[in-house]
Amino acid sequence: MKPEANLTGLFVPLVTPFTDDLRLAPDALARLADEALSAGGARGLVALGTTAEAATLTTEEKQAVVRICSAACRAHGAPLIVGVGTNDTAAAITTLRELAQSGDVTAALVPTPPYTRPGEAGTLAHFTALAEHGGLPLVVYDIPYRTGQPLSISTLKALRRLPQVVGVKYATGAIDAATMELLSSSTPGFTVLGGDDAVISPLLAAGARGAILASANVRTADYAELISLWQRDATGPARRLGTELARLSAALFAEPNPTVIKGVLGAQGRIPSPAVRLPLLAASADSVRRAADLATARTRQTHEETAA
């Protein structure tokens, strides 16, 4: 019996705002969290994901980010997913137990162990240990582009049978026969969440029940609407919006994530600075400008239609 997590709809993996001198900007993070869950219409938040630059945050900063996101989710009655990315199984169990003790975390987003590349048997053993000893529901993060470890459909099916595994963030970079097999064979209490921003629309059309999308930091309400349109089988509007958002996502990922996203948010005045921490470098002005234009395109069109 799987725990009740209800991980459908849009989850926004929030950026971590910094000041120009690279200090955490907690007030800006709190505003982003509230905006995503209120006007943005997101189902929930993800803290400490790749988009949050979690690898560069201190332990104290990570704790602050989780506290801020937890407060926003409590206020809105929304689920919170927290990223736990490590190739050390014992350390991951310790972190999961600490998060579970807070009572505010719905699930942990856990990638296939990066760099170590333990093979599929080792990956299954890793998640089995986390499920048995971590005390928190798990969302498997399948992203071979970053981990160097692809997962076969048989391994994914074995993972979803684990009682504590409640979903997968599916970001393999392709929609193929394995994708369709995964989506066509459901397991109660297990949700497939799309994680490839540029192809999220066809993945939703194929049966994914939600998404974790970095691009949704920028046009949250539109990505939430896209998911809703596909869930309502509003095929025509979903295709049109999906095509538009695919162009935006491509622009937002023109340089390493989340540099362009932070550039756009900074230009919009939603965060105090576009600053990122090394080894990332700030996005170029051209990339930010192109993405910012696409980020406001639908807003301008809506205003023009209303005026007419």
Q: Would you spell out the secondary-structure blueprint of this structure?
A:
Blueprint: E1 9-13, H1 26-37, E2 44-47, H2 59-76, E3 80-83, H3 89-102, E4 107-111, H4 119-133, E5 138-142, H5 144-147, H6 153-160, E6 165-170, H7 177-184, E7 191-194, H8 200-206, E8 210-212, H9 220-231, H10 235-252, H11 259-267, H12 285-307
Parallel strand pairs: 1-2, 1-8, 2-3, 3-4, 4-5, 5-6, 6-7, 7-8
Pfam families: DHDPS
Binding site for pyruvate: 51, 212
Protein name: 4-hydroxy-tetrahydrodipicolinate synthase
Characterise the protein shown here:
The protein has 308 residues and is an alpha/beta fold. The chain has a single domain, classed as TIM Barrel (Alpha-Beta Barrel), CATH 3.20.20. The protein has twelve helices and eight strands. It has helices spanning 26-37, 59-76, 89-102, 119-133, 144-147, 153-160, 177-184, 200-206, 220-231, 235-252, 259-267, 285-307; strands spanning 9-13, 44-47, 80-83, 107-111, 138-142, 165-170, 191-194, 210-212. It has an eight-stranded parallel barrel, surrounded by five helices. Helix 7 (177-184) links the parallel strand 6 and strand 7 (191-194). Helix 8 packs antiparallel against helix 10, helix 9 (220-231) runs antiparallel to helix 10 (235-252) and helix 11 (259-267) crosses helix 12. The chain starts with 8 loop residues before the first strand and ends with a helix.
Keywords:
308 residues, alpha/beta, 4-hydroxy-tetrahydrodipicolinate synthase, diaminopimelate biosynthesis, 48% helix, single chain, disordered C terminus, Schiff_base-form_aldolases_AS, Aldolase_TIM
